[in-house]
Q: What sequence folds into this?
């Protein structure tokens, strides 16, 4: 049995043995310690390889036996170094797998806690009561909307009056206002200059001016007298 196998099988703490196996945290700590130990062993082997190369160069052909022995030791060190490289790769893979497993375990554990908490919260909830509560909320929302609509609508003050009667009264007021304006209109009076002594046809401009019908009843009598005089003079 190798030292590494003994390490994993029998190197656990008493507390870990009592629980039936190490915890993920303990196993990860042991793997990191092993990686650190192997890394130091790598540094040691690399130093020994460099030293044996120096010895082989030093003896060279002058002392072939010593040079060859140094090269043999270098080969053994290189073999051990390759073995450690493979071991470190295996340990790194195992550590990453254990870390992922530990993470997944913690995630599942927390999800289980959350599920239990939800179950505990929902334990005292009755679906029928929830349905009744939601129905009450909906009804109260409808009542609030009706109240809001009633407040926002225009008040119907004055709707009892007939709109046709109001329009007729408005037209009557407009007609009275128009008649008042017509009465206030003053037409120019008949020219006070004397007419020509020679009978003849009046100029068109004067005759046209005099034939305008006054709109005011107040001037009607005076205009009729003037027209009679003009007719007598023209004949």
A:
């Amino acid at each position: 049995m190798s030292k590494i196998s003994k390490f994993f099988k029998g190197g656990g703490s008493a507390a870990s043995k009592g629980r039936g196996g190490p915890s993920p945290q303990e196993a990860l700590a042991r793997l990191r310690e092993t990686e650190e130990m192997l890394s130091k062993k790598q540094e040691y082997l690399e130093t020994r390889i460099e030293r044996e190369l120096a010895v082989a160069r030093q003896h060279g052909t002058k002392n072939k036996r010593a040079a060859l022995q140094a090269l043999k030791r270098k080969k053994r060190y290189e073999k051990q170094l390759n073995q450690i490289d493979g071991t470190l790769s295996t340990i790194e893979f195992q550590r990453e797998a254990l870390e992922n497993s530990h993470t997944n375990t913690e995630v599942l554990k927390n999800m289980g806690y959350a599920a239990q908490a939800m179950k505990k919260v929902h334990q005292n909830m009755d679906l029928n009561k929830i349905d009744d509560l939601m129905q009450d909320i909906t009804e109260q929302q409808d009542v609030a909307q009706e109240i809001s609509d009633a407040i926002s609508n225009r008040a119907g003050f004055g709707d009892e009056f007939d709109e046709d009667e109001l329009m007729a009264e408005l037209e009557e007021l407009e007609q009275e206002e128009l008649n008042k304006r017509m009465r206030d209109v003053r037409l120019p009076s008949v020219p006070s200059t004397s007419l020509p002594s020679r009978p003849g046809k009046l100029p068109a401009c004067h005759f046209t001016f005099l034939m305008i019908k006054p709109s005011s009843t107040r001037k009607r009598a005076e205009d009729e007298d003037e027209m009679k005089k003009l007719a007598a003079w023209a004949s």
In short: Confidence is low (pLDDT under 50) at residues 3-8, 10-15, 201-215. The radius of gyration is 63 Å. The longest helix spans residues 64-123.
